[in-house]
């Protein structure tokens, strides 16, 4: 049986390949899949994982997404949210897709498949009617932290 690091590596390779393939086929219009994919992931977490993302404002929803992904799902060690008006960031320490994201970024591919961003965007749209626009990503190697920035739009 494969070890956890081996499974993580294979998953990163699979996700990189799928995302890169979408980008190769559709170019930057591949980012238009974010809304559908985010809603599907959120719905599956709710029905299959018995997890619910609740909140009555963007910051509360984002905090709950970070908590669920760190504590319940285990896709990151820790998530830190910052909201400044309509500018939002989620810093994900030790995200399980950090290797695939790095490979994609090295090829100039936007991080449109970011799990925390997609789930957060889907939850904010579902509960508050808000949409988002990707603004960018930064990587801090010493802390192994990926910070995704996006903007809330109405």
Summary keywords:
four-stranded antiparallel sheet, 5 helices, 154 residues, Muramoyl-pentapeptide Carboxypeptidase, domain 2
- What's the CATH first level? Alpha Beta
> Overall pLDDT, averaged?
92
Spatial ordering of strands, largest sheet: 1-2-4-3
| Coarse structural class | alpha+beta
Q: What's the order of the H and E elements? A: HHHEEHHEE
- Individual helix count: 5
Helix content range: 40-55%
Tally the structural domains: 1
DSSP strand content = 15-25%
N- to C-terminal distance: 48 Å
Radius of gyration: 15 Å
CATH architecture: 2-Layer Sandwich
Assign an overall shape.
globular
Describe the structure.
The protein has 154 residues and is of the alpha+beta class. The chain has one domain: Muramoyl-pentapeptide Carboxypeptidase, domain 2. It is 50% helix and 21% strand. It contains 5 helices and 4 strands, in the order αααββααββ. The longest helix is centred in the N-terminal third of the chain and has 23 residues, at 4-26. It is globular and about 40 Å long. The termini are far apart. The model has no long low-confidence stretch (mean pLDDT 92).
Helix and strand topology:
Blueprint: H1 4-26, H2 34-48, H3 58-73, E1 78-84, E2 87-93, H4 98-106, H5 115-128, E3 131-140, E4 145-153
Antiparallel strand pairs: 1-2, 2-4, 3-4
Short description:
This protein has 154 residues and is α+β, with helices and mostly antiparallel strands. Helices cover 50% and strands 21% of the residues.
